[in-house]
Write a structure and sequence with these properties.
This protein is α+β, with helices and mostly antiparallel strands and about 300 residues long. It is about 25% helix and about 25% strand. The protein folds into 2 domains: about 80 residues, no CATH class; about 190 residues, no CATH class. Helix 1 packs across helix 2. The model has no long low-confidence stretch (mean pLDDT about 85).
């Protein structure tokens, strides 16, 4: 399997990602005959049967999983100084995984007309959703109708601007509102739990509109209606919403969190509503993800509005 490279926004350097579970990903998404055969026979079973993800999640919530925290932190160079609670306070690996951070570690961009990154993750942006296919599977357009499961909503976002934010297991796994406004209730759409790692998306771009997901519409002052979707993945069957539905929310306010595993957040902005930051557009045009921290700028309100 090829290495995954991304741009660290803070340093502007291109770095190689430390891939958690690389052997398992190679088994399912590698190029060897054995890998293809294994994926054909067993991958659909793992993805469509939630028992595996629930059982794995159960193991991460047991007190005996606490012993894995310190080695994980050391292996992936995770900065414990950012944690809101001390490492010793976590009773299980999942407690560590859904940790909160000190507020001062993730300042929220103050300008009202700026949308922010909702998670710590690796970002790709497209000014038009039709361009998203260039990232993983050229020639296969993102299927909005299947993703949203609502013909009217799919029409509304037909030429929308798109953000794909990928989280891996080493990241902070709480997600936040990218804009302030009136947030509707989150609508759950059932589906399998395939991996959302780039190794998987290159082979099966449709994972993004097949996997289990929760979709929330946010009516904002500067960006119109923004659609935010949290996507589950292998070992991430649980997407927890912590906000109060049908209420006004602040930009940067916690929306919820993922239980153990990698995962993904997608944002859709109505056509012409947002002007993405230049570095995100430049890196995305080179098919390079940009590692952004929650609270930093995604872009500002378009001058057309």
């Amino acid at each position: 399997m090829n290495d995954i490279h991304y741009v660290d926004r803070a340093t502007e350097k291109v770095l190689k990602e430390k891939v958690y579970g690389r052997r398992a990903l190679s088994l399912f998404y590698g190029h060897s005959f054995f890998a293809r055969l294994f994926a054909m026979i067993f991958l659909p079973v793992f993805a469509h049967c939630s028992v595996f993800s629930r059982f794995y999640g159960f193991l991460q919530k047991r007190s005996c999983s606490k012993k894995n925290i310190a080695p994980f932190i050391a292996a992936y160079d995770i900065d414990v100084s950012e944690f809101a609670d001390p490492v010793d306070s976590f009773h299980s690996f999942n407690d560590f995984f859904i940790r909160k951070l000190k507020k001062e570690c993730r300042p929220i961009h103050p300008n009202s007309d700026v949308a922010i990154a909702p998670v710590d993750g690796r970002y790709l942006v497209a000014e038009n959703v039709s361009e998203a296919s260039q990232f993983y599977a050229k020639g296969q357009c993102f299927d909005l109708q299947s993703f949203l499961q609502d013909p009217s909503l799919a029409g509304q976002y037909r030429d929308s601007s798109m953000v794909i934010a990928r989280l891996n297991p080493t990241d902070y796994h709480r997600f936040h509102f990218p804009v302030g406004g009136l947030a509707a209730s989150a609508q759950c759409i059932g589906g399998p739990l395939f991996s959302v790692n780039p190794f998987a998306l290159v082979k099966r771009f449709s994972i993004l509109w097949e996997n289990k997901r929760m979709i929330t519409k946010i009516r904002s002052e500067f960006f119109g209606e923004v659609c935010m979707a949290e996507i589950g993945a292998t070992c991430v069957g649980s997407i927890h919403q912590t906000f109060r539905p049908d209420s006004r929310v602040q930009k940067g306010e916690e929306k919820g969190y993922f239980s153990f595993g990698g995962s993904c957040v997608i944002l859709l902005f109505e056509k012409g509503r947002i002007r993405f930051d230049a570095d995100l557009l430049e890196n995305s045009s080179r098919n390079l993800e940009t590692k952004c921290l929650f609270g930093t700028s995604l872009g500002c309100q378009s001058s057309n509005y």
